[in-house]
Amino acid sequence: MSTKSATTATELLPDETVDVVVVGGGAAGLNGALMLVRSRRSVVVIDSGTPRNAPAEGVHGLLGADGTPPGELLARGRDEVRRYGGRVVSGEVTSVTAAAAAVHGDPRFTVTLAGGHTLTARRLLVATGLHDVLPDIPGLAQHWGHGIVHCPYCHGWEVRDEPIGVLAVGPASIHHALLFRQLTDDLVYFTRGTELDADTRARFAARDIRIVDTAIEEVVAGDDGAITGVRLTDGTVVARRVLAVATTMQARTTGLDGLGLPMEDLPDGMGRRFVSGAAGSTDVPGVWVAGNVTDPMAQVGASAAAGALAGAHINAHLATADTDAALAAARQTV
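Request: output the structure for the sequence above.
Response:
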């Protein structure tokens, strides 16, 4: 199995218009591309090489691939897309614009990469993913993906029975705590200035979840670099081996402003995403979105499935456009 990454943007980028440019080389983008190239569509995937799950040791909850390192899974995906003639290139998209006039009603988009390379596409699949914004707590960020986790389904089994602390960021953290309580008997909930009503405190007490209302000063690590606890503003250190926190999830939008894709805020300040309809369709004709960029809670399997569905939908849309063009040409000939 090849583990080579995406090649550079200078790798024989096509001069002709391609059927689809996929912006984002993660699970959603690659699975969408796979569906398209297997339908004999010309596809170029632009991969920035910065997947959200890069710090994780393995992908979990994905049938048949549980525990596979993220980099290995994506390398397999790139090889599969290339096997059917798709191109996967490394690069950053700096701008995407729609042509002022469609070609016989068929949309056209110009995709510009860092360095000035451009591509023209009939359709776009945006699968840029998201970035996680952590609370501004000294010592926290450097442990992201290891001692700092966010998803009980992605990392829960791996931290089972450890002393876990939940860092509250808002109302969603209450449910977060109940999910992590399933994984350990030793759970501490740091309120961090958020409100807990009497009923919630009673429910936590019934589940033996300890509540700490004192503010956090910093995350403490040992000589081996692993988390050992949380220091509070009163000087107390609460020993913990793992900290769970619900991040603010922001869709990656770099280079996409020119499309005017509609966005919306997530509830309780949890982040921001692209708005999508059936199969990832958007209000912008010819543009689909898939994966974490529109569904921030989706794990790898769900993101890949969304990409596959969007890819199939794009192919069907192109098939209709191809037929319309052929019919128009035939009528013109007559």
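The two ends are 53 Å apart (CA to CA).
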